[in-house]
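REVIEWER CHECKLIST
Item 1: Sequence provided? yes
Item 2: Single chain? yes
Item 3: Sequence as submitted:
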Amino acid sequence: MTDLPRLIDAKLGVSDRVAVLLLDRDDVRNELTGTALIDDIVQTVDWINGSAAVSVLVVTGAGKAFSAGGNVKDMRDRKGSFAGDVHDVQDRYRHGIQRIALAMHRLEVPAIAAVNGAAIGASFDLATMCDIRIAADNAVFGSTFINLGIVPGDGGAWFLQDLLGPQRAAEIIFTGRLVGAEEPLRLGIVLECVFR
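Item 4: Structure as written out by the authors:
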């Protein structure tokens, strides 16, 4: 097996052909923007695709949340990835968070999202990009982009519609409501709910 990639804000382990990618920025609820997690995810996919030692990828979050998605304060204050005019933001989006959907699309092994706690915004989208989703009983999903006056621009609208059908996906995206308790299992967002 080749050496594991050097990740900054995530940890990768491989055992019995199962790669586990742990989003490891609990201090910011594993947010995807404002951290190195986007690069870590893309680098992990590229490494797996070049390795014969992995048959499946499991993505999970350290601490209390799978991931909070994007940094809402930076969005509000137009800082970091969200600074500048609309063209600057669009360019950083395309070369930033949208790389996750492209990476997950080219991943050559099945992916499982093991969702603990909140999976909000772009991280809900990340979970829908996985082939299977298993949720802890405290998991909460939210496509909350509308609450910020934006759309799911990282592929989430397509992935959620593919998963749930256009009508249910539209309801979840248009309302921005949180989906928790037994509802993710009932709707088919997750395959299984595991009690902690």
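Item 5: Key structural point noted by reviewer: Strands lie at 10-15, 18-23, 56-61, 111-115, 118-120, 132-136, 140-142, 178-180, 192-194.
Item 6: Recommendation: ____
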